[in-house]
Amino acid sequence: xxxxxxxxxxxxxxxxxxxxxxxxxxxxxxxxxxxxxxxxxxxxxxxxxxxxxxxxxxxxxxxxxxxxxxxxxxxxxxxxxxxxxxxxxxxxxxxxx
Amino acid sequence: xxxxxxxxxxxxxxxxxxxxxxxxxxxxxxxxxxxxxxxxxxxxxxxxxxxxxxxxxxxxxxxxxxxxxxxxxxxxxxxxxxxxxxxxxxxxxxxxxxxxxxxxxxxxxxxxxxxxxxxxxxxxxxxxxxxxxxxxxxxxxxxxxxxxxxxxxxxxxxxxxxxxxxxxxxxxxxxxxxxxxxxxxxxxxxxxxxxxxxxxxxxxxxxxxxxxxxxxxxxxxxxxxxxxxxxxxxxxxxxxxxxxxxxxxxxxxxxxxxxxxxxxxxxxxxxxxxxxxxxxxxxxxxxxxxxxxxxxxxxxxxxxxxxxxxxxxxxxxxxxxxxxxxxxxxxxxxxxxxxxxxxxxxxxxxxxxxxxxxxxxxxxxxxxxxxxxxxxxxxxxxxxxxxxxxxxxxxxxxxxxxxxxxxxxxxxxxxxxxxxxxxxxxxxxxxxxxxxxxxxxxxxxxxxxxxxxxxxxxxx
Lengths: 97, 460
Fold this sequence. Notes:
The structure holds 2 protein chains of 2 kinds.
Chain A: H1 2-21, H2 29-40, H3 43-50, H4 57-87
Helix pairs in contact in A: 2-4, 3-4
Chain B: H1 3-23, H2 27-49, H3 56-76, H4 82-107, H5 113-140, H6 154-174, H7 179-200, H8 208-230, H9 233-256, H10 261-266, H11 290-299, E1 302-307, H12 309-314, H13 317-329, E2 333-338, H14 348-355, E3 363-365, H15 366-369, E4 378-382, H16 391-394, E5 413-418, E6 438-442, H17 445-459
Parallel strand pairs in B: 1-2, 1-4, 2-3, 4-5, 5-6
Helix pairs in contact in B: 1-2, 1-9, 4-5, 4-8, 5-6, 5-7, 5-8, 6-7, 8-9, 11-17, 13-17
């Protein structure tokens, strides 16, 4: 039952994703990529939840490494996307910087 | 905090991700959208940390290292290096899904067949994403050859690798808790890492927009599979959003090159030595000096710049904008026409021009400018080649025949800025350069435009 429920969520999310992303203009495709990259750092949530005190040795090593990589993804992804989007300006306020 | 409450907060995070992506549909709201999405992530992290029994020491060590590296990279990277950066981050997303699946399996080897299959998918897709992205990163940053590396029996090797992966997956899923199960899992990980390399090496530099998009999609799908392993909704939702985004971009890029995904992945396009037999384009090359180009531009009522990867290589975006400003001051209508696959990743040119302060309402898409191209006085092609090659429309025997291009040849005059007459990525000569309305302005793009700016300033 659990598997069916999770698959249900998965299918709906895929359709929603297609719907949302197809409305993003090509001008913003690079920020879209780096931003969605940051979202894929969501594995951080899983990695955090798996770092339990009762685990030892190799399991801790794997999870900590997963935390490191996922955090790079999340922090770096959002920061660089923000930096890029800051630069997109309309004509009226283009010269003020 | 109880599990129910944590899951409730995850729903809010998912809603924030969705709103964030929705706001990316316009440059005016995009920045707030990104912040909203980041807020969703922060919320999810905080609420996860409230669970009991976590080893905070390791968590904070890992997060501190990751934050340091991530921030440093994000603040330091040049806009021209953005494709490499995104490739690298894609890879990190992939490896963390692999590690997550491995860690989960290591702790609880007693898995149902369903969980075992998704654990395999998470580890396999994650591994392929990781090494594939590393190869893409190497190619984009010039650390390894940008050329498509093809060797005999490549398809056979890839087929054997895939068959091994499927075989190991079946054996692993049937009995994950045994010692053999663990060995098969390790085999899967190694095969995935190898497959990432062998499947990305044969793809050439100019096809990178497709590869990055595809790896982007994989990193999302790997996270999604990891979500199934952990029975975690937020991983599934966020992962599928990213997976869908990558698939859409991959599709757009393939269409813009008029090629199927299979053709991009397997053909080693551009590496085959084109036996350019006899009938190359006819006509003669008309070189122009900075002064000639200045007079042409000075007299024009409308100018469209067509940037390509060469603009990024020469770092010519700022000086291009300076020239654009001078032209506007001279009452010339200026626009920037951008082909979907110009550069090394989707939207690459847009970001560079935005960095140089070009307002986004001056950037026009291919489909928008082509119908009114004959009313454009001058097209200035900066470091673009195949995306303006008329052979795509006229020459049925050309490898790029059928690819949509920016039809610069319909403009009254075309000025092509180019280093030399070397053919572009597709290895074919560009008939545009031999047209009667084309003038070639040879030299480094940045230096050439600087010379034009100097001409304009000198005339005042």
